[in-house]
Amino acid sequence: FYTDWVYITHSGYKDNEFIPRIHRSKNRGEDWEDISSDLPNIAINDVYILPGHADSILFVATDAGVYASMDAGGSWGRLGTNMPYVPSFDLDRNPAHNTLIAGTFARSIMTYPIDSLLPDTPVATNGVVAPNSRLEVYPNPASHTLHIVWNGQPPNKTIDMAVMGTKGKAWRYNQSGTQWDVDVSALPAGIYFIKAQSGSVVQHGRFLKK
After folding, report:
1. What is the value of pTM for the model shown?
2. Can you tell me the distance from the alpha carbon of 9 to that of 30, in angstroms, rounded to the nearest whole number?
């Protein structure tokens, strides 16, 4: 690691701002750069820098799970596919098993095998979701009907889709095809996350319910 590099995470919730904030300084705080990139608009609570990789592999705990960057904050992807969209507050590493440990609210402690992210090791099917694996979601914000479009190669299986609030509650659907209309009128106002899975292929999206 670089001894002059420091990181800070913060949110603007008290000012009704939902933009994620993670900044890095390469000169002990004299100058700062925003490396939030394509993180979703949710608070960032903790950051963990994986030792031995020149500060290129970063993990952040957010109010909707854990995200990872393999390019020093240039882009981010959600870590894993089986972690609920719940607030995560603390990150650490178990060096004996080389696993990332996340302390969550209401879902206890969860772990992830770091070796599956590194070169020359098998990549687990629940690995980091690529930044372009995004569902097309509109209108956003939505108040009644939400249109969802699967991007890329059409899936060859029925799609299991979940719409999840930031408090961990989920609404589940089974879908076929690549475009769907979902009635969200009964959902409380707030930020929601969508996970659509067909076999081992996963795509994510998010929207604001007015």
Report:
1. 0.58
2. 16
